[in-house]
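[User] I wish I could look at a protein chain and see how it folds. I have put the entry right below:
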Amino acid sequence: MIDETVEEIEEMQTHSSSVVAVKATRALLELLDREFATVEEYERALDRNARALQRANPSHASLHNAMREVVDTVSTADSEDVEDVKATTSEAVERVVESVEHGKSGAAERAAEHIEDGSTILTHDYSSTVLEAVELATRDGAHVEMFVTEARPRYLGRKTARTLVGNDRVETHLLTDAASGYYLEECDEVFVGMDCIVGDTLYNRVGTYTIAATADHCDVPVSVVGSSSKVIESGFVFENEFRSPSEVMREPAEGFDVRNPAYDSTPVSLLERAITDEGVMEF
């Protein structure tokens, strides 16, 4: 299961960093079914597998934090025997999974409070937390208009648009990434998810920086929404992922190369706020 989860994360079959963190954390439970002679042997196996899961996607801060928390909890527990250390692992996994899932829903609840009835919002790519925030706001009576970018080249924004169509309190428009500047002046706010915030930089799906810079020029506030586990001050170095050129164009590139970065970096100075389960950070 751990090897399969590593492969799945490497292939990015799962797009949400929170879901990735939960899947990776639960994958560590496979170790509970293995035999170990000593606590030390078990802890080495736990650390080795946690590092393998971290390396599967070094861009996901929530994955990094989840693995680190489980390993740190186990290594500092001073377990007496293998059964004891396995019990500690099980408890740590349950706590971390609950924290990640609670963080996501808590951030959505806070973000919903910032969505006003009659507002026009632009969003980029696919964020289940942003979608949950919109769902909560409309459930409380708000009607909103949403402009959704396609998020090329993988077109995950289309998934966002299809989800929003099921909400009769949302008027949904799908547009190309390049058209976001044309419609931003009609918008009251931009809401996007986050892969992570490290120091003074937001890392998110490529195209976020362009939208944030244009929104800043148009005086449209930008809010990013996500679990507090994705906000890191130190101890984590973001590594971008460069995906297959075939996602950009199917035919062979002749005489030129194709660049396909998964994420870009946005200075938090271009943002209005970051909304997490622990509160709102104003910039």
In short: Residues 82-112 form the longest helix (31 residues). The chain has a mean pLDDT of 94. The longest strand covers residues 144-149.
